[in-house]
């Protein structure tokens, strides 16, 4: 139909129509290429934190079955901590301060692909699966986890958020976690940074972590003592490349 239409037009108009179509297609292709190049450039700003802070400990829980879902999480193909380089530089300074007093960071999660977040959503919507309730959400019905604890989008997917704690060195040279009063990913009031359900010493340990993180440009999440986001986060792109 389009060919017949062009055939019936004067030659100069036909050329103009064809030229306009070519320009439009070329422009769209160029815009798509520019978008892909821009995303590639932005993605290249992500780095492997283990390479930058080798003295820290990395216990990437979602690569394993040791998490609230009870199985390895989709898109975690390697036990790696990946973050935007701006957040990593700040995190390195936190660890350097801790090293001076024979302590170090222990990291549980960093960049989280959107595919992994979707896995979490499928799990929270499956109300029949309560196999991890006693360990991770003993005082809440599973549907109440949706929203404040588990949501359709996570700041982790932007690459500036990290879940972590502090380890201290014992007299025999081993490292152990500071007692924070509740374990990582316990969905409970007890995990609130200023919870009244923990001891003063446990609160002091939490505030040590918080003060160091805030000092180096992170903000905290009051419901989870382990959760921090670097303030350089533009809060725009939610990434979905795998951790590998």
Automatic annotation (TrEMBL):
<dbReference type="Pfam" id="PF01427">
    <property type="entry name" value="Peptidase_M15"/>
</dbReference>
<comment type="function">
    <text>Catalyzes hydrolysis of the D-alanyl-D-alanine dipeptide.</text>
</comment>
<keyword id="KW-0482">Metalloprotease</keyword>
<feature type="site" description="Transition state stabilizer">
    <location>
        <position position="112"/>
    </location>
</feature>
<feature type="binding site">
    <location>
        <position position="156"/>
    </location>
    <ligand>
        <name>Zn(2+)</name>
    </ligand>
</feature>
<comment type="similarity">
    <text>Belongs to the peptidase M15D family.</text>
</comment>
<keyword id="KW-0378">Hydrolase</keyword>
<feature type="binding site">
    <location>
        <position position="163"/>
    </location>
    <ligand>
        <name>Zn(2+)</name>
    </ligand>
</feature>
<protein>
    <recommendedName>
        <fullName>D-alanyl-D-alanine dipeptidase</fullName>
        <ecNumber>3.4.13.22</ecNumber>
    </recommendedName>
</protein>
<feature type="signal peptide">
    <location>
        <begin position="1"/>
        <end position="31"/>
    </location>
</feature>
<keyword id="KW-0732">Signal</keyword>
<dbReference type="InterPro" id="IPR000755">
    <property type="entry name" value="A_A_dipeptidase"/>
</dbReference>
<keyword id="KW-0224">Dipeptidase</keyword>
<keyword id="KW-0961">Cell wall biogenesis/degradation</keyword>
<keyword id="KW-0645">Protease</keyword>
<dbReference type="InterPro" id="IPR009045">
    <property type="entry name" value="Zn_M74/Hedgehog-like"/>
</dbReference>
<feature type="binding site">
    <location>
        <position position="227"/>
    </location>
    <ligand>
        <name>Zn(2+)</name>
    </ligand>
</feature>
<keyword id="KW-0862">Zinc</keyword>
<keyword id="KW-0479">Metal-binding</keyword>
<feature type="active site" description="Proton donor/acceptor">
    <location>
        <position position="224"/>
    </location>
</feature>
């Amino acid at each position: 139909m389009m060919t017949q239409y062009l055939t019936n037009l004067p030659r100069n108009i036909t050329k103009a129509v064809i030229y306009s179509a070519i320009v439009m297609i070329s422009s769209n292709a160029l815009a798509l290429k520019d978008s892909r190049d821009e995303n590639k450039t932005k993605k290249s700003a992500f780095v492997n934190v283990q390479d930058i802070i080798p003295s820290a400990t990395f216990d990437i829980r979602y690569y394993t079955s040791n998490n609230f879902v009870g199985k390895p999480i989709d898109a975690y193909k390697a036990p790696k901590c990946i973050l935007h380089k701006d957040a990593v530089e700040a995190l390195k300074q936190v660890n350097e301060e801790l090293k001076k007093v024979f302590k170090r960071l222990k990291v549980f999660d960093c960049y989280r692909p959107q595919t992994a977040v979707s896995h979490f959503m499928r799990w929270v919507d499956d109300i029949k699966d309560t196999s991890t309730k006693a360990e991770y959400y003993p005082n809440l019905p599973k549907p109440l986890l949706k929203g404040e604890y588990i949501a359709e989008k996570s700041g982790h997917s932007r690459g500036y958020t990290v879940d972590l704690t502090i380890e201290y060195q014992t007299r025999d040279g081993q490292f152990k976690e500071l007692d924070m009063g509740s374990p990582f990913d316990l969905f409970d009031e007890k995990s609130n940074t200023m919870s009244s359900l923990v001891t003063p010493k446990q609160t002091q340990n939490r505030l040590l972590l918080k003060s160091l993180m805030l000092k180096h440009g992170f903000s905290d999440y009051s419901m989870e003592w382990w959760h921090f986001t670097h303030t350089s986060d533009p809060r725009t792109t939610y990434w979905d490349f795998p951790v590998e």
